[in-house]
């Protein structure tokens, strides 16, 4: 794994706010306790990691990611550009995914996307910039916002587990989009912390 890993940081300020705003979420936070989720502080590496993890289990994703790290050493645009498509695919991913990863590296090298300045952009600007790349949808961009740029207020409608966590929390049989956004607004400006708990609640 990359050495630049840390955890998403939050504390009592965010917890107290969410408790005040939503009693059910507050009770869930008290029951679950603090959650430690790893982040990858470099957004380029984080994006590649998210591409690797798309539509496969977290265990499978970890296996493929470790192989990719072993192949490349450091996950950088240059190390990816210097590897062939078949070498990247041989880490255990589809040819299409390997192509997406090569394309992201090319975009970084050409300056089409400047990963070093992403932190200066708004959430929507980051999403717009990243989704211009092949293989990167809104969900993937939102995961980079949370687990790399550590943006505080991201609750992804595209994330099925987030929606399932909401339904479990509030005892809902279905979740209409407008209701989702009403809850999301309630969690703001600490939606990312709410997301951590909704993920935990999705498996209950």
Features:
2 domains, 204 residues, Endonuclease III, domain 1, mainly alpha, Endonuclease Iii, domain 2, two-stranded antiparallel sheet
- Going by CATH, what is the homologous superfamily of the largest domain? Hypothetical protein, domain 2
The count of β-strands is 2
Global structural class: mainly alpha
Chain-averaged pLDDT? 95
Question: Considering DSSP H and I runs of 4 or more, what fraction of the residues is helical?
Answer: 55-70%
Distance between the termini: 29 Å
CATH overall fold name of the largest domain: Endonuclease III, domain 1
Strand percentage lies at under 5%
Unreliable runs? none
Cα radius of gyration in angstroms: 18 Å
Question: What kind of sheet is the major sheet?
Answer: 2 strands, antiparallel
- Summarize the helix and strand pattern as letters: EHHEHHHHHHHHHH
**CATH level-1 class of the largest domain:** Mainly Alpha
